[in-house]
Design goal:
Layout (H helix, E strand, L loop, with lengths): L4 E5 L4 H12 L3 E6 L14 E3 L5 H11 L3 E4 L6 H6 L1 H22 L3 E7 L22 H20 L2 E7 L1 E3 L17 H10 L5 E4 L11 E2 L1 E3 H16 L5 E5 L5 E2 H12 L5 E4 L14 H7 L8 H14 L13
Parallel strand pairs: 1-2, 1-4, 2-3, 4-5, 5-6, 6-11, 7-10, 8-13
Antiparallel strand pairs: 9-12
Helix pairs in contact: 1-7, 2-4, 4-5, 6-8, 6-10, 8-10
Amino acid sequence: MTSENILVTGGAGYIGSHTCKALAKAGYQPIVFDNMISGHREAVRWGPLEIGDILDRVRLDCVIQQYRPTAVVHFAAFAYVGESVVDPAKYYRNNVAGSLSLLDAMRDHGIDRIVFSSTCATYGVPQNLPITEETEQKPINPYGNSKLVVEQMIREFGRAYGLRWIALRYFNAAGADLGGEIGEDHFPETHLIPLVLDAATGRRPDVTVFGTDYDTKDGTCVRDYIHAADLAEAHILALKGLDAGLTSQAFNLGNGNGFSVLEVIEAAKSISGLDIPTVNGPRRAGDPATLICDASKARDLLGWEPKVSDLGKIIQTAWGWHQRKGSHRDLLPETRP
């Protein structure tokens, strides 16, 4: 077992907190660095929380000097596609300039390994399925483009300064910690499964189905859902892979199975035992009909295998968290912790 300190930017967020739990289980010490704009204090349970912004180089330097991390797992980013379209400056400032600030700090302090939380949004609307790492990256919104730019920066830092890196391109992250300790809690919420469960419990009046005329089995969008715990495990394997000399490269993370919006709603109805009111809405601009992942490269080179791949099981973990998490989701925005 190792006792290395790992700096986890955005570690108080959804996938960040799941990864901190996995890091601690693997013997690492996660050091959470988070500005707490969307993070949750109660999700930081497996190591210290240092509040700060990746754009704040002085604060970054202080934390790095204090803990001397040997590697970085980088989650810190804004991640709302619609918001990125109406306010691209926010996304390029935080996601791109913030990542550059972090990379500069790593170089100056001699930290030579990074695992980067990227996204399938870098592919845009693919011409062929399933999506492999060789699929052309043509993002269609500032969020996806900001992640692609960071991938390019990391690659070039590798060429110029010897940075060793792995970029993990997630498909649709979903579900909650199998132990029930942490889960998905965005504000505002945009992910389908928690929206559906909110509609089931009456926290929202209904869930909107955006587009019912796609060329899919039931006319609604099809997505590849991957459990948060499986995503977290991939970060551990990526760190270990870099330790073992794995070449710097990108990996897709998904199950390789697609489920439609209506299939998700029906599964949630079955698991919750509750009705889920729906409203049909127009297609959202840029929404591909189907996104399905080929994650064979991660299986072959990282030894990664999703353990919670069944849609029902994914929703069941989310439903359990949804019931346990208490009343803080119902607070007004200005009173949220």
